[in-house]
Amino acid sequence: MSVHTISLLSFIIVISFISKSSANSENSFYYFCDQNNDRGNYTANSNYATNLNNLLSTLTSNTKINYGFYNSSYGQNTDKVNAIGLCRGDIKPEECRGCLDQAKANLTQLCPNRKEAIGWYQDEKCMLRYSDRYIFGHNETGPAYYMWNMNNATNADKFNGVVNNLLDTLRSKAALGDSRRKYGEGNAVVPSNKTVYGVVQCTPDLSEEECDSCLVESIKVLPSCCNDKIGARIVRPSCYLRYETSFLFYDPSAQSPSPSPSLTPSSPKGDAPSPSPSLLPPPAPAPKNNDIPSPLSLPPSSSLTPSSEGT
């Protein structure tokens, strides 16, 4: 699979696995289509297309969900579509639904006729994925990408140690979450008395062990991709981690969810209107933290290489 690089202002965009990026700071959208067409295509007037439109248009319709996780299916047999919508744990319900509404219109437009696709929108405030295969409760580490800040930390060894300890603490917290939210956020003081802020998250349909495993693999990658960097993130379908120094990128006032969790994917019933297509927002200046994206290749027990990872 080929890798293409495009420059936009000072921000580098990497396109791979038929993935493309819109480097628009708060409106950035990183997405992956099924390049090898393993899942096949659907046609515009097919049952699969109808089911996909119905599923995406109703995915966030349950306004009682205030924990940012939507998992649902629509259709029967080979025309059945499965979808997951996940918002970062600090994102408020209304903002979460708005993010996913924008993501679903963009993803179907940017991956036309593909049965499987995944995208992260608004600086990873939300993730949307869908497929004709069963995607619930599986630890999936690809496709994935990582990004890093161009600036190096002072007293790097101590800095890296503080970051690793912080992420390990948050990893344990996230893995112990329930079927509504597996999320951890926190901060620590690094050399030069600066604060490093961190977030880790798993899709809450994972078990404690699967969540822990996904995050452990991501933390292990940091020395290979982002060593000594004052900010970095690793983004996968099943888990996410990010840290930034002197840069609070999440809302620490977010409240814990209150409704009882739903342990199985819901299935919307009846017809629903198809989402209206919308274009990606226009380019904007590069993010303040100067993060650079790169595709991620993480086969088990192997070294990191700059190529995209499949599912």
UniProtKB/TrEMBL annotation:
InterPro entries: GNK2, GNK2_sf. Residues 1-23 form the signal peptide. Residues 30-135, 141-248 form the Gnk2-homologous domain. Residues 252-268, 293-311 have a biased composition (Low complexity). Keywords: Repeat, Signal. Residues 252-311 are annotated as: Disordered. Residues 274-286 have a biased composition (Pro residues). PANTHER family: CYSTEINE-RICH RECEPTOR-LIKE PROTEIN KINASE 25 ISOFORM X1, CYSTEINE-RICH REPEAT SECRETORY PROTEIN. This is Gnk2-homologous domain-containing protein.
